[in-house]
Design goal:
Largest sheet: 8 strands, mixed
CATH architecture of the largest domain: 3-Layer(aba) Sandwich
Oligomer: single chain
Radius of gyration: 25 Å
Number of strands: 18
Number of domains: 2
CATH topology of the largest domain: Rossmann fold
Amino acid sequence: MKATFFIRAIVAIFLMLCIKSTSAQQQNAIISPVLNPDNTVTFKLISKVATSVKLKATWMPSAKPSVDMIKADSVWSYTTEKLDPDMYRYNYLLDGVEITDPLNSFVERAGIRHESILIIPGPISELYKVNDIPHGTLSKVWYHSPTLGMKRRMYVYTPPTYLENSNKYPVLYLLHGAGGDENSWTALGRAVSILDNLIATGKAKEMIVVMPNGNPWQAASPNEAPENSKAEKADVIQMGTMRFEKSLVSDVIPFIESHYRTYNDKNNRAIVGFSMGGLQTQHITNSNPTLFSFIGVLSMGLMDNNRFGPYNKEEHIQQINALQKSNPKLYWIGIGKDDYLYATVVNLRKFYDQQGFKYQYRESNGGHTWSNWSLYLTELAPTLFK
C-alpha cells in the first residue's frame, strides 16, 4: 500500500514537472510585442484560464480605448493597424483586471499604475531611445522646503559636460501633470534621452533640467518618501492654492542656484509644464513676471468654471500686462486637437489676443497624452536659451 502511494506520488510530481516544463517552453517561444515590417505590431499573452483578454493602448481613440484579443489554444493575440513612429503605452485587461505585458520588460510607473512601453522606430522616436552618445547625469535630490514644511525630492538632470568643467549652465524647470510626480518626465516622458540626443546632435544647448514634485501634499513619489514625512490627503484641487508655486519660487530655485553652477538671470531660466504643470506654470509666471524668459504651457488653458478657486479677470489682465512688459523671449502654447482641455486653450488664446500678448501656438494630433508632451519637449528644448 505504501509502495503504491509512493509510486502515485512520484507520477504526480513527474506530471506536474512536465506541465511546468511545457508551459515554460511555450512561454519562451512566445515574443510580445513583435514589430512587423509594415509597422503593424502583434501582441500575445498566454492564459489557459482567461475568458476574455483585451488590449488597452494609448494609440486607440478615447471613445474606444481597448480591443478584444483572439484566442488560439492558450495564446491570445492581436495585430494592430500600421502605427506611426512614436512611443506608446499599453496594458492587457485579463477578465477585466489590468496587467502589464509579462513578455515585455519595458515597463514604467504612471502614478499608482504601471504600463508597458512600446517604441516604433522613426525620426521622432530616435530621440526617445538610449543611443551611443555622451550622457548626462540624473540625480534624485532631497531639499528642505520651509514653504511646505517638509523635506522633498526632485530630479535634476545635468548635461554630459557638467562633471568635466567649471562652466555655468541655464536651467529648465519641467513640471508634470496631475497624477504624476518627480519621476514622470524621466520615466514616461523620456526627458533624459530627449535632452541627451538633442544636445549630442547640437540641436539644443546644454542645460540643467529640474523636475520637482508638483504635489504640495507629497514629499516624494509613492514608496520613496520617509515614513515620518508630513502626509496629507491627495487633493487635485490644491492646484489652485499656489502652495507648490510659492515653494518653487521660494525653495526650489534658491536651492538649485546655490547648489549648482547656474546662470541666475531670467534669460537663463525656462519653465515648462503640462496639464496641472501648465496651470502651475501660468500661476508662477503671472505672479513673477521677471523670473523667466522662456515659458511653455502645454495641454492647459484658461478655466472658466472657477474649478481651482475664484478667478479675478482684472487681476489677470494686470499680470499679463506686467509679463508682457518684462518681454519674455518665448511664450509657447501646445495642445492636441482631441485633448479634453482644448476649449480651455481656446479661452486662453482669446484672452491673450485681447490683451495683445504675443505667443507661439502649436496644435498637434491626439489628446491629453505623453505622446504629445514628449513631442513638445523635442520641439521646445532646441528653442531655449538662444
